[in-house]
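Need a sequence for this fold. Nothing fancy.
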């Protein structure tokens, strides 16, 4: 029997494992994606998601990437869909094409303002907030499983986490079935966020998004567009190996594996990995081994 990702997150007897791919915008990017998609088949993911618009790509490439992933036998593919540059009519055409391709999941996002602009402006007849996109999708494709973004350390434009969670609840009330979080490096932040969501009346699964960081410079770059804090120990350890990329990568990987253990122990319904289309690092076998232990966790008792 077919089960949506949200249904699986609620009922599986083990944490689900998923990976985000991003749609490439260059030939080199496509090659990196090809290698990553091939290499990560070994992870036996329960589902994968595909970004849209991030880094300048449009919706069309996202669908093409979904097709390529389906060709590699990836199951339960969830394309992202944003409101950037999209009118209601564009979204009708795109969502019909997604559903027409047999895809039953969409990650509904507002998207970021174009580079150089600080305020998000919808196109005429477009949507200003992701909640409106969710309501539109729920109405047009009632059977879709819809994911939305959550920000454990708040979205940069929100005045407070409480306000952001209020808006997150609007997305769920509009029809979202699951929440995937922005990356966080302090695992307690996730558990506190889930508690606050539950107190706010949000009952859908909250899937933690994790990034194995590779350097302090990467972290600083990411902090320019998303709010997350860096635990002192990680900061210190990365600082100490600034001129040794391989050691820094190992520290990032060990950190994320520790986060995975804590999350699974704490009852997280799954682990969603931001691997940035990186095909292989010498350390991936350790990550894969860690994830296979996760897969066997509850099933083995
Ligand atoms: C898991 C994940 C995947 C992502 N994938 C992509 C991707 O593929 N492509 C891409 O371009 N970006 C992606 N992003 C980034 C995302 O598009 C940006 O963070 C964007 O700035 C916000 O999108 P949103 O869907 O959370 O917006 P919204 O939920 O609309 O929120 C945006 C801001 O508006 C506020 N807000 C919401 N409703 C209201 C209201 N009624 N009144 C006042 N304020 C309100 C919120 O508090 C928040 O500060 C992703 C983010 C995450 C966490």
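Here you go.
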């Amino acid at each position: 029997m077919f089960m949506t990702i949200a249904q699986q997150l609620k009922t599986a007897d083990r944490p689900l494992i998923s990976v985000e791919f991003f749609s490439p915008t260059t030939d080199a990017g496509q090659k990196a994606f090809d290698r990553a998609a091939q290499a990560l088949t070994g992870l036996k993911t329960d589902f994968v998601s595909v970004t849209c618009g991030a880094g300048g790509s449009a919706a069309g490439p996202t669908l093409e990437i979904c097709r390529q992933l389906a060709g590699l036998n990836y199951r339960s593919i969830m394309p992202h869909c944003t409101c950037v540059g999209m009118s209601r009519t564009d979204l009708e055409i795109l969502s019909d094409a997604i559903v027409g391709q047999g895809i039953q999941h969409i990650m509904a996002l507002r998207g970021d303002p174009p580079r150089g602009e600080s305020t998000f402006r919808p196109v005429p007849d477009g949507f200003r907030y992701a909640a409106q996109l969710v309501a539109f999708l729920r109405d047009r494709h009632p059977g879709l499983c819809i994911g939305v973004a959550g920000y454990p350390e708040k979205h940069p434009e929100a005045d407070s986490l409480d306000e952001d969670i209020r808006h997150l609840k609007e997305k769920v009330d509009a029809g979202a079935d699951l929440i995937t979080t922005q990356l966080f490096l302090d695992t307690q932040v996730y558990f506190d966020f889930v508690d606050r969501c539950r107190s706010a009346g949000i009952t859908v699964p909250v899937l933690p998004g994790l990034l194995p960081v590779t350097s302090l410079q990467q972290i600083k770059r990411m902090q320019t567009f998303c709010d997350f804090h860096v635990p002192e120990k990680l900061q210190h350890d990365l600082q100490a190996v600034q001129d040794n990329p391989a050691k820094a990568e190992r520290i990032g990987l060990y950190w994320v594996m520790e986060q995975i253990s804590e999350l699974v122990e704490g009852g997280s319904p799954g682990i969603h990995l931001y691997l940035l289309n990186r095909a292989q690092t010498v350390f991936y076998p350790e990550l894969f081994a860690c994830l296979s232990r996760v897969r066997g966790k509850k099933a083995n008792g």
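For context: Residues 245-265 form the longest helix (21 residues).
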